[in-house]
Amino acid sequence: MQWETVIGLEVHVQLATQTKIFSGASTAFGAEPNTQACAIDLAMPGTLPVVNEQAYRYAIMFGLAIDAEIGKRSFFERKNYFYPDLPKGYQTTQLEQPIVGAGQVELNLGEGRTKTVRIHHAHLEEDAGKSLHEDFHGMSGIDLNRAGTPLIEVVTEPDMRNAEEAVAFAKKLHSIVTSLGICDGEMSQGSMRFDVNVSVRPKGEEKLGTRTETKNLNSFKFMEEAILLEVERQIDVLENGGDIVQETRLYNGDTKVARSMRSKEEANDYRYFPCPDLLPVELDDDYIDSIRADMPELPEARRERFKEDYQLSDYDADILSGDMAMANYFEAATKACNDAKLVANWVMGDLSSKLNNDELSIGQSKVNAEQLAGIISRIKDDSISSKIAKDVFEAIWNGEGDSADAVIEAKGLKQVSDTGALEQMADEVIANSQKQVDNYRNADPDKRPKMMGYFVGQIMKASKGQANPKAINEILLKKLNELL
Q: What region holds the Asn/Gln amidotransferase domain (predicted)?
């Protein structure tokens, strides 16, 4: 039997406000546990929450970016459940009247393929704390620093049909929120977390299958792995005569293992009711229009600008404009060395490879934009070859120098471009390679260019890789042709 996968996402986007959604406590990442949770975050008796206007502004910006309906009247409800990291015993969230209504996100899947993913809504809510399971000798610790941090939860329709589309949507959403500046996008810090709803059904069937929800995936790679594993599991269950149980699941990206967590709750299990401490928020057109007027450049506009301003291909522009941090890095490096194409090649090549290998975001890169521009500038002025540039890049990455010039000087890597020195090396190689010279002389003219590689290689070996390849080729070609 052929099966069709159906995927919907619920994405928690941590808003980049300085303070929490209902209190003045800091949202800064990395503080000592339980040092940033105030009495309001803990719902201590006598405290009253006050809505953070910046959280509303950020939510509205997101709604405008996806061409969604903006809820001119919204209010908060209490979602009741009991868990150790939920200090209030309830979560303040939105259900009936969220701030952002229906919208859509357009995906470019490559090779001319596009996809529209419908957004059901996005609502504001507070985050819970965090359970810590390491170093507690069989017990769990609770860190409430994150409690009360503002989130928007973006809920899609079940429009995606495979892991590729789900990852493409996640990356596009990441691009949108970081471009808006409403989220830093640092998934390793929990700034974006994905809950993936997956079901399968016989191909051609209209009715949706029973879905499972895999929660708290914090990387594109883990999300893709979890979807592929869950699809395979569900198909195996169904083809062996079993039934899919609606449940919440967890995926461990380190062990590549998924497990059942609990049966899936329904909305009525949470006993939602309007929050008695918070009044409804009503917006007028002037307020929304003022936010619309200050909207920053969005990914699609940036992509077109990159193509026009930097003469980038569609592929290069797609990659470099998709992530706000990468776009800023690319533009800063290009401004410093004035060579967009070389910067694009390095960012998408050596830099991205290093970041992937070390599991770092571009914001954590050990070679900054100015340092990369310095390497490229030395390639352009023939101080170093492209091959030596890779060694310089590696040295800066490993902390062996803070600039291309410093590494080149310290390691004696400057390229030999002196014509006299190169001619002397060429004469010595030709004198010691009579057999290869005879082969070159007797070869068909169209085969001689390939035979140049031997002579170039010998000079590179003699110069320890520091001879200027372009100058070597010109000198060798002239000298060898004089022997014909």
A: 328-480
What pLDDT shows up at residue 472?
A: 78
Q: What is the 3-state secondary structure (H, E, C) of the chain?
A: CCEEEEEEEEEEEECCCCECCCCCCECCCCCCCCCCCCCCCCCCCCCCCCCCHHHHHHHHHHHHHCCCCECCEECCEEEECCCCCCCCCEEEECCCCCCECCEEEEEEEECCEEEEEEEEEEEEEECCCEEECCCCCCCCEEECCCCCCEEEEEEECCCECCHHHHHHHHHHHHHHHHHHCCCCCCHHHCCEEEEEEEEEEECCCCCCCCCEEEEEECCHHHHHHHHHHHHHHHHHHHHCCCCCCCEEEEEECCCCEEEEEEECCCHHHHCCEECCCCCCEECCHHHHHHHHHCCCCCHHHHHHHHHHHHCCCHHHHHHHHHCHHHHHHHHHHHHHHCCHHHHHHHHHHHHHHHHHHCCCCHHHCCCCHHHHHHHHHHHHCCCCCHHHHHHHHHHHHCCCCCCHHHHHHHHCCCCECCHHHHHHHHHHHHHCCHHHHHHHHHCCHHHHHHHHHHHHHHHHHHCCCCECHHHHHHHHHHHHHHCC
Which range marks the domain in which residue 136 is found? 3-287
Give yes or no: residues 330 and 351 share one domain: yes
Q: Cα separation of 104 and 436, whole Å?
A: 66
Query: Which pairing describes strands 150-156 and 130-132: parallel, antiparallel, or unpaired?
Result: unpaired
Q: For position 456, which CATH number holds?
A: 1.10.10.410
For all residues of the chain together, what is the average pLDDT? 91
Residue 265 confidence (pLDDT)? 66
37, 144 Cβ separation under 8 angstroms:
yes
Of 231, 262, 287, the residue that ends a domain is 287
Report if residue 55 sits inside a domain.
yes
Contacts of 7 (CB under 8 A, 6+ apart): 158, 160, 161, 162, 163, 165, 166, 196, 197, 198, 227
Residue 11 to residue 250: CA distance in whole angstroms: 15
> Which residues have a Cβ under 8 Å from the Cβ of 253 and sit 6 or more positions away?
217, 219, 221, 222, 225
- pLDDT the model gives residue 373: 97
- Amino acid 274: pLDDT: 94
Give every residue of the chain whose pLDDT is below 50, as ranges: none
Q: pLDDT digits over 226-249, tens only?
A: 999 999 999 999 999 999 999 999
Please check whether residues 239 and 302 belong to one and the same domain: no
Overall domain count for the chain? 3
Boundary (domain end) residue, out of 256, 287, 318: 287
Q: What is the pLDDT of residue 415?
A: 65
Same domain for 353 and 333 = yes
Q: Is 429 in the same domain as 371?
A: no
